Amino acid sequence: MDARALEDGGLDVGLEVIPSRHGRGLLGWMLGPVAGYYLAPEGEPSLYITGDSILTDSVRDAIVRLQPDVIVAPAGAANMGIGGDILFSVDELVELARLAPADIVYNHLEALDHCPTTRTGLRERMRAEGLSDRVHVPEDGEVLSFDSPSKHRPRTRAVALQPGLQKWMTSPLAGG
Question: Which of 154, 152, 106, 168 lies closest to 8, judged by CA?
Answer without folding.
Answer: 154
